[in-house]
Design brief:
Strand content of chain B: 25-35%
Distance between the termini of chain B: 17 Å
Largest sheet of chain A: 4 strands, antiparallel
Number of strands of chain B: 10
Structural class of chain B: alpha/beta
Number of strands of chain A: 4
Largest sheet of chain B: 6 strands, mixed
Order of helices and strands of chain B: EEEHEEHEHHHEHEHEE
Strand order of the largest sheet of chain B: 6-7-8-3-9-10
Number of helices of chain B: 7
Strand order of the largest sheet of chain A: 2-3-1-4
Helix content of chain A: 55-70%
Helix content of chain B: 25-40%
Radius of gyration of chain A: 35 Å
Radius of gyration of chain B: 17 Å
Oligomer: heterodimer
Strand content of chain A: 5-15%
Low-confidence stretches of chain A: 1-8
Mean pLDDT of chain B: 91
Mean pLDDT of chain A: 79
Order of helices and strands of chain A: HEHEHEHEHHHHHH
Amino acid sequence: MNKGGDQRGVLMDLGKERPQVPAKARNVSPIVPRGSIAGRALVAVVAIMTFLASITTGTVLLVRASAAEWQSDVASEITIQVRPVTGRDLDRDVAGVIAAIKAQPGIADVRAFTKAESGKLLEPWLGTGLSLDDLPVPRVIVARIVPGATLDLAALDASIKQVAPSVSVDDHRAWIERMRTMSGATVFAGIGILLLVIIATIISVSFATRGAMAANRPIVEVLHFVGAGDRYIANRFLQHFLRLGLEGGLIGGGAAILAFGFSESIAGWFSGTPVGDQFAALLGTFSLRPSGYLILAVQAVLIAAITALASRRTLFATLDDID
Amino acid sequence: MVRFENVGLRYGLGPEILRDLSFQIPAHSFQFLTGPSGAGKTSLLRLLFLSLRPTRGLVKLFGNDVSLLGKDEVGELRKRIGIVLQDFRLLDHMTTYENVALPFRVMGRAESTYRREVIDLLKWVGLGERMDALPPILSGGEKQRAAIARAVIARPSLLLADEPTGNVDPTLGRRLLRLFIELNKSGTAVIIATHDITLMDQYEARRLVLHQGRLHIYE
């Protein structure tokens, strides 16, 4: 004869006094009233955290995409410098080097900079109106590599040095290495900021959960009295926190997605200004790929889940103290 | 069902307020627990409800040594115990109907399986017209009846009631006593802690008298 038993008669016979079942007598109230949880503040915190996390992730994605673009651009060409040497005809050396480069497999196109173009390159340092004939200006040759081809740099170096001993080959490895380091550092900093944002979210949610539990302590005690286990009670609170987390995630993530959606237009307002140009050089067109938007959406859901998990952990810890 | 052997209880480093309690509560039994104020009636009820642990001695509840029980097991045992506290402990955001239906809701039962039963019981305890009222607007007596209804609705194996008729008039007190007797007849062991001699005189039952921390039993 316990609470689980259904095989039983009525506890007391009301006879003619038995009332009609009133339409209003129904379970409509939630076990934990939503108003007892400081919801708005928590939604605002989660929304701000999600927004910051999304902006960080979006920026990291933009920098990585731009860095990858630069790397592929730079890695697809090599630069050959032919320095003037007394007693050698520079033009003949350049022609010989071009022929030797073209003979190498994997070369798509070779182009030598003219004297005028070399002069243009030196203008920022030497100024305009200078006669380059008086200066020992090296000649620059740019060779484009067939996409996907692997160039034998040692063989190329050896063959062109036979034609012109004063030649040097630059395959931009140092630049590529620097760019890799820079994009790696950006990703690392982004992950660091994300971790800080997530930790701050967990701490905020834990405090909010403790506050909600303290405010609802009488309800928890009564639920214990009527035989509810910790899991049952925690789940009642968890529903609220999951909903608050999802609301915050949706607002913060949605705002960040909108910001990236309009970033191309915003970047357009600043184009032509020094700041705008620098940002354009660093972040390219400011446009996220569709996969980037998907990552931001997944991240918002993840932050909502973290909110619920942090809340669940605090709930069980607090329930241990209440009886 | 319940067995106490040489049980003692003290709060912190204070004096022992319950001393050498040895008694049994058989299944289907009915008893009054009485004694002067401060004798330890509420503390004994809390020991029986597992919200306090004895400082010494053995307490066995439904065949389990309570000193060996984990939190989950305590929760499971509590599902078999109904309790009426002096401060009622109703949830202010729920209607009277919802408060009384709470044990069923916690069990996960569908509302259609218990709605009729909850309404009948509310009518029996005189709250038929107050089903949709919230506790803050109920009188003390109405709150007490709602708390009693909540404790008995799921027909526990053991019912503990602390001064259950303290806030009601004698007529309603007799009606509530009849409810406890009906519950006892349907198989629940009942322990009613009370000062009310008139109430105890209305029903021939075992009396457990606490005096200066010791228990005297009058069969």
